[in-house]
Design a protein that fits this description.
Length: 623
């Protein structure tokens, strides 16, 4: 029987499930128990479409994309899944009859601690979009035990607390022990009779957990696969078993460990190889088991490298094809570079990832030999094309004792994309111009999109309804052009402004409740919410606010004409990024100064919200 057939059926099924699971009468149940019961029923609802989607992929030939990323900033899945399964209205009516506020229950789900910034939101948006468009698109990442951190402020300084998002059962994940793999590290790599011999010093078990990604009312359920690090019986003799266990658990322990030390850098290298190798090996072996060849691999699979963190996919593919399936080098390289694609996220040379050889080689000796070989052959290709030694050094993958991960990703991919038209233009004309000249058809643009299901339909149903009333119920972005007809419609403007004010007032209430800062919903909300970093320019914004404050204090005419503004920041600075932490302290100091100034605080307020995440963004963005 379908428990979501109607509100009455679901209410009965919900009460029955809760009482059998927790052995308590419904009237004595807690909101936490109610959330987990709802989550279990919704998760069960994904089962059959998920099975059907897997069956289609296993029995038909579809080209699938596997999106490798260090971050997937998913937010709460309960709201998204209830909408996309088409069951939210039924659940809401049933909960109303039971005296439960569905919104309150949804807020009990923790934000999955799998990401931090735009990189992770891009990945999450792609997964949602691919499922909703019916494409076979899958995520590959790490099942971090702790997210970045929970952020609080003390005297304006950032204070980090553990983000223990997995402390309770995460209802969406499914452990897939059957697909576990052993990932090798350390040891020695050498050649005997022309074949590579690799004897690792330790093996770390990679166990996948799958999280369903539900398409919007189309019966498609893809998944995000997250790899968890667990012990094996192979570890260095110099280590005690408990020491080995504690060390390996750091691999899936923390998102972005502090890499200011060599030990932190080693951990990051291990993390990047761990999930890249696990995902690649699993997919290659499944492909071979089905087709008994790799000749058709790039017709059926794409490995998307989201930033350079998963660039080790490229040498790992080569290792598997050469060492485990005995392909010749040229064939293996042809398959690899036509299966991998790379998304670039930065124009700043200093932000492009590199690793020192002396750190990298002892951790991944076989992978280093392969990168060395890829670099040697690439240099020879350039030489044959007439490049001089200076130009070759500029493009080389290994140079000055470091491995350039972006160069590896470009050389080993069939496609390189930027994430905005201007970004891609500057990549081609400036930062990566020599590579664009070498590979004239490789660089292309894929402008970042957003998941309108979350950022319009879910979090701003009033605006969503207004748009649909005016433009029609369509998923086509082009239909939004019809809104131009309302540009001078006073009634339309009035309705829009009422919706905007409602959300500004709700955000103002939250800030007042949580941080004790009173802000005016009628003021202009000037918002900057993104990762705290020098190149994100929060410091420029802070200096701008200081300049406004100075003018308000010294220029009476400016004070008389200035439209009241509330500047709202949300960001976390990486644990070891001390300069970024100083910017947070500066902004909080400015806030304390201007918010307490009775001569100007009707015109200027500053708020730095604590612990910015996807759920907080769902309050800020509609405002």
């Amino acid at each position: 029987m379908n428990p979501f057939k109607d509100a009455e059926t679901f209410a009965n099924a919900f009460v029955d499930k809760l009482e059998k699971t927790y052995a308590v009468p419904f009237k004595a149940s807690t909101p936490r128990q109610q959330y987990h019961t709802l989550g279990m029923l919704a998760r069960e609802r994904t089962g059959m479409p998920w099975l059907y989607t897997k069956h289609q992929l296993a029995t038909e030939e579809h080209k699938a994309i596997h999106y490798f990323s260090m971050e997937f900033l998913m937010g709460r899945l309960i709201t998204n899944n209830l909408y996309n399964l088409g069951i939210r209205d039924v659940v809401e009516k049933a909960f109303d009859s039971l005296g439960i506020d569905l919104g309150d229950i949804e807020h009990l789900e923790a934000d999955a601690g799998l990401g931090n910034g735009g990189l992770g939101r891009l990945a999450a948006c792609f997964l949602d979009s691919m499922a909703s468009l019916g494409y076979p698109g899958y995520g590959n990442g790490i099942r971090y035990r702790y997210g970045l951190f929970e952020q609080t402020f003390e005297d304006g300084h950032q204070v980090e607390l553990p983000d223990d998002w997995l402390k309770e059962q995460y209802v969406w994940e499914v452990r897939v022990e059957e697909d576990a793999l052993a990932i090798p590290f350390g040891g020695e790599a050498r050649f005997e009779n022309g074949r590579a011999i690799y004897e690792p010093a330790e093996l770390i078990k990679a166990v996948p957990y799958d999280i369903p990604v539900v398409g919007e009312e189309n019966g498609v359920v893809n998944h995000l696969r997250l790899w968890n690090a667990e012990p094996t019986k192979v570890f260095p003799e110099s280590m005690h078993g408990f020491e080995y266990n504690a060390s390996l658990r750091q691999i899936s322990g923390f998102l972005y460990p502090d890499d200011m030390t060599d030990e932190g850098k080693r951990l990051r290298i291990k993390q990047q190889y761990f999930f890249s190798a696990a995902g690649v090996r699993s997919l290659l072996k499944k492909h071979y088991a089905r087709y008994k060849t790799f000749d058709n691999l790039n017709d059926l699979l794409v490995f998307q490298i989201n930033d350079t963190h998963p660039a080790l996919i490229i040498p790992e593919m080569m290792r598997v094809l050469l060492d485990e399936f005995a392909l010749d080098y040229d064939t293996a390289w042809h398959i690899t570079k036509n299966t991998c694609a790379y998304t670039n996220h930065t124009l700043m040379a200093e932000a492009l990832e590199t690793w020192p050889i002396q750190l990298f080689e002892p951790i991944l000796p076989r992978i280093y030999l392969l990168i060395e070989e890829i670099d040697k052959r690439f240099r020879n290709t350039l030489k044959h094309k007439g490049y001089d030694e200076s130009a070759i050094r500029e493009l080389a993958i290994i140079e000055e004792g470091r491995i350039r991960m972006a160069h590896l990703a470009i050389v080993g991919s069939f496609s390189v994309n930027g994430v905005a038209a201007l970004h891609t233009k500057l990549l081609k004309e400036a930062v990566m111009q020599p590579f664009d000249a070498l590979y004239p058809n490789k660089f292309n643009n894929k402008t970042n999109g957003i998941t309108h299901r979350r950022w319009l339909k879910h979090i701003n149903p009033e605006l969503s309804q207004m748009v649909f009333d005016s433009a029609g119920h369509t998923r086509l972005p082009e239909a939004l052009q019809s809104l131009e007809a309302y540009a001078n419609d006073p009634a339309w403007h009035k309705r829009f402004e009422a919706i905007k004010y409602k959300h500004k007032h709700a955000l103002a209430e939250r800030i007042q409740k949580e941080q004790g800062i009173e802000i005016d919903p009628n003021s202009i909300f000037d918002v900057q919410i993104k990762r705290m970093h020098e190149y994100k320019r929060q410091l420029m914004n802070a200096l701008h606010i200081m300049a406004i404050y100075h003018r308000l204090k010294t220029e009476p005419k400016f004070l008389e004409t200035y439209v009241p503004h509330t500047f709202i920041f949300g960001a976390k600075a990486a644990t070891g990024y001390h300069y970024a932490k100083k910017i947070i302290k500066l902004i909080n100091t400015i806030a304390k100064k201007v918010n307490q100034d009775d001569t100007t605080n009707d015109y200027l307020k500053v708020v730095f919200v604590e612990n910015y995440n996807v759920t907080y963004a769902e309050h800020i963005i509609p405002a």
